[in-house]
Amino acid sequence: MPRPKTKVDLIEQSQNNYKKLFDYINAFTQQEQMAEFPVGTLNRNIRDVLAHLHHWNLMMIQWYTVGMKGDRPAMPSIGYTWKTLPDLNRKIQEMYNDTDLDEVKIKLKHSFERLQVIIAGHSDEELFTKKRYKWTGSTSLGAYLISTTSSHYDWAYKLIKRTKKGKS
I need a labelling partner for 15 at 20 to 30 A (CA). Which of 91, 107, 116, 120 fits? Predict the structure, then answer.
């Protein structure tokens, strides 16, 4: 599917990829949903993948909130750079180790809905004009939202599908 270029496309693709991910997960038994992935992936199970998505949604919401006030958000997160993403992703995985799968699903649903409200609140121009907002640097708000929603949900779907086939 081509990368979204309009608000309608972004909403549709983020919602479709989210639904596709959950339809796939919900087709598994509860025991299959709790099963560990083959060795070789940071995220060790479906809960870890969904927690990863939820936390990245929260970071996007934080970047947006800070950035739209005219301040510079700590991106990707305080104490991390884009070059240290593996360390950040390990920290995220550890943060949710004691969180139940059903709780993570609810958290992800809420953070997903919050991002949908953000997307819906902007025009095509506001979403897809590069350098429109100082905090997005040389890219667009839409590019960040695509990376956090539709592209990230697609990554999660493919990761789970691959690991369920026994390939990490």
Answer: 91
